[in-house]
DNA sequence: CCTATTAAATGGAACGTTCCAATAAATCAA
DNA sequence: TTGATTTATTGGAACGTTCCATTTAATAGG
């Protein structure tokens, strides 16, 4: 059944008794071919066990149907969700996206981009690795390949960005905590080499200022954007003379870490210490306690990013508008009941 | 800086004042070229903004350096971990793997495989989607492309498989529960269209038989292999006249669901109902309570799979030995303290 | 029946690489 | 000096497609 050397359209042509051009037309679904001929060809294709050689085809055709998705951390469920959102769109557009993971490593990212370019991708959706250098996308841009960034942006870049409204999300969350009666607030996790960090922290600060929290009562703890980072932040914060009573976390992973660390110390998340996450990953809803979080509509952002890159490819441009996605605060249990003044644990039930 | 039409080695040749053959040799790092010539060429490459066209190259070369990883569900952290384990190996072998997600959909899998083949992959590592038909890999095999399955196998296939020792893992976990004093045991989640399911369930059954659990006291609940599935299984089980007191779950996701559902009912996982997971994902250790689970060395399996496919490619064979990875039970809190006879909740502290 | 028109099928020249065989230049042996 | 050998470089024929320009066959118009 399996012939050794791989079959080409010439083999098919011979088998079907037509010319290679005819075979090519059939492969492309051209209507110029008489149905019976097409059928004969299709049978031959089966018989010889043909696999289309896209590399050869791309030599002549303008561009391929391959799109690259470059993700900074696939083991982070948030980015996995994002990737899956994009995938859905690409799939229904008839393109197969190839996913590459950079593991938050700029060098790896460079390699991955190079490889994707060499495959002749038609476009790229990238969530850049932390520490990406300003020039990292120079070659991609020079080659005229459409790129869109998702979730993260580079400080100076002209590349279009699809991102949630981080500032507003953080503002909403912070305002909610203040509304609950908290007066000493912390921002946990993240580091200043991420543009997103500044956006979220900015929202936090603005809410504190607008709603009358003294600068001395807002505490910022940088840290890893992971469970571990959250644990560390909480430890540091609770070791203070006057610890905060609530925290907005850079993302849900950090928040999960905080919940965990609270439990470990025998504190009740929500009642003893309020925590709010960011991103609203699927797990947030099912956590114990369920995590209050800023929903960014992850899948929606992914879909949007995919649509934008598809449109860019189609209209052969390398420019597009940025998109700032709407956010909203999903209140669950982790931010606890309303807080009665400065007592240590509130007892009220809800607002 | 960016010329419109993309540069080829001919442009480089012109720029550097050498022949295209020389450029080609430089690109391949051949030692036949005089160092100063090579330098001149490399400079020209930079100047014209050249991107290597791997498609064109593959037309002449035997096979590409692309390897495909086909994953059934990337949003499942377990498979994400697995993918990352493979990636590490491929990376250090100088190949860039492209990851494709099938979302547990055989039709999607078919498309993805087709696309990967068309790109001319040198090899494939696949964790087949549930419901994959027996013939799904016929064309891949016919084309002589090395494939290895990881974690899952197809009933009849000759394709090599890398998988943990599911039977033994389930046996160990079940024996542990019985050792704790449980006499009415359940197996939660999974469905019989997965070979893994039968392996794990087999281990469960064998342990029950060997250690004197009456057939009537071992309960099997099929269900989704997700948190939701776990929740559903627990609900059904507890609704029984004589409910089980412990469960071995098909995987950690199911186990997490069970822990959640227990809490929702006001039951204390471990003390009131023992649960053991399977796979030992990173999260298991950090859960509340920490989940007892069968560790399968996820990353190690991924690495092994990657090595096997690399070796197959290198030795141009399509055969390899199966590999059954060692497992071990990681005991944490979710299986609770030793159980004193048939009381409803144990009070002892540890063994 | 001949010519115009339409429909279907085809040959051949690209596309950007690799690699073999061949050439040119440099070095060496005598 | 001359031929043999080694070292660098090069032209050209593939590789498997697409697509333009043609050819061939079928149909219609008069």
Task: Write structural notes for this entry.
2 copies of one chain form a homodimer. With 351 residues, the first copy, chain A, is α/β, with parallel strands linked by helices. The first copy, chain A, has 3 domains: 9-52, Orthogonal Bundle (434 Repressor (Amino-terminal Domain)), CATH 1.10.260; 66-164 and 298-325, Response regulator (Rossmann fold, 3-Layer(aba) Sandwich); 166-297, Rossmann fold. Chain A has helices at residues 9-16, 20-27, 35-48, 54-60, 77-92, 106-118, 138-142, 166-179, 195-210, 227-238, 252-264, 282-286, 298-314, and strands spanning 66-71, 96-101, 123-126, 147-150, 161-164, 185-188, 218-221, 246-249, 274-279, 292-295, 323-325, 328-330. In chain A, strands 2-1-3-4-5-11 form a 6-stranded parallel sheet. A 6-stranded mixed sheet of chain A has the order 7-6-8-9-10-12, sandwiched between helices. In chain A, strand 8 (246-249), helix 11 and strand 9 form a beta-alpha-beta unit. The longest helix of chain A is centred in the last third of the chain and has 17 residues, at 298-314. The termini of chain A are far apart. The model of chain A is unreliable at 341-351 (pLDDT under 50). Chains A and B meet through helix 4, helix 5, strand 2, helix 6 and helix 7 of A and helix 4, helix 5, strand 2, helix 6 and helix 7 of B. Chain A binds a DNA duplex (30 and 30 nucleotides) through helix 2 and helix 4.
Describe the SSE topology.
2 copies of one chain form a homodimer.
Chain A: H1 9-16, H2 20-27, H3 35-48, H4 54-60, E1 66-71, H5 77-92, E2 96-101, H6 106-118, E3 123-126, H7 138-142, E4 147-150, E5 161-164, H8 166-179, E6 185-188, H9 195-210, E7 218-221, H10 227-238, E8 246-249, H11 252-264, E9 274-279, H12 282-286, E10 292-295, H13 298-314, E11 323-325, E12 328-330
Parallel strand pairs in A: 1-2, 1-3, 3-4, 4-5, 5-11, 6-7, 6-8, 8-9, 9-10
Antiparallel strand pairs in A: 10-12
Chain A binds a DNA duplex (30 and 30 nucleotides) through helix 2 and helix 4.
């Amino acid at each position: 059944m399996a012939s050794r050397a791989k079959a080409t359209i010439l083999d098919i042509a011979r088998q079907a008794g037509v010319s290679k051009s005819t075979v090519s037309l059939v492969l492309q679904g051209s209507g110029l071919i008489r149905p019976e001929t097409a059928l004969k060809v299709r049978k031959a294709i089966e018989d010889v066990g043909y696999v289309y050689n896209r590399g050869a085809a791309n030599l002549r055709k303008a561009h391929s149907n391959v799109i690259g998705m470059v993700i900074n951390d696939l083991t982070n469920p948030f980015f996995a969700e994002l990737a899956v959102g994009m995938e859905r769109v690409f799939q229904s557009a008839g393109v197969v996206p190839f996913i590459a993971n950079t593991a938050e490593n700029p060098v790896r990212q460079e390699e991955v981009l190079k490889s994707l370019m060499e495959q002749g991708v038609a476009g790229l959706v990238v969530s850049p690795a932390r520490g990406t250098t300003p020039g990292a996308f120079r070659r991609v841009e020079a080659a005229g390949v459409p790129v869109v960034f998702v979730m993260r942006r580079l400080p100076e870049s002209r590349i279009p960005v699809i991102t949630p409204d981080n500032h507003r999300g953080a503002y909403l969350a912070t305002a909610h905590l203040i509304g609950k009666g908290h007066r000493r607030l912390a921002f946990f996790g993240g580091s200043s080499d991420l543009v997103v960090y500044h956006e979220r922290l900015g929202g936090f600060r603005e809410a504190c200022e607008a709603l009358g929290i003294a600068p001395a009562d807002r505490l910022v703890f940088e840290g890893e954007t992971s469970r571990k980072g959250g644990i560390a932040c909480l430890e540091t914060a609770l070791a203070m003379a006057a610890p905060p009573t609530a925290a907005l976390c850079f993302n849900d992973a950090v928040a999960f870490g905080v919940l965990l660390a609270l439990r470990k110390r025998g504190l009740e998340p929500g009642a003893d210490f309020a925590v709010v996450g960011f991103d609203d990953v699927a797990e947030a809803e099912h956590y114990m306690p369920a995590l209050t979080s800023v929903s960014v509509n992850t899948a929606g952002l992914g879909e949007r990013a995919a649509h934008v890159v598809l449109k860019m490819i189609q209209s052969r441009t390398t420019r597009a508008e940025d998109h700032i996605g709407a956010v909203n605060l999903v209140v669950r249990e982790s931010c606890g009941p309303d807080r009665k003044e400065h007592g240590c644990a509130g007892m009220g039930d809800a607002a």
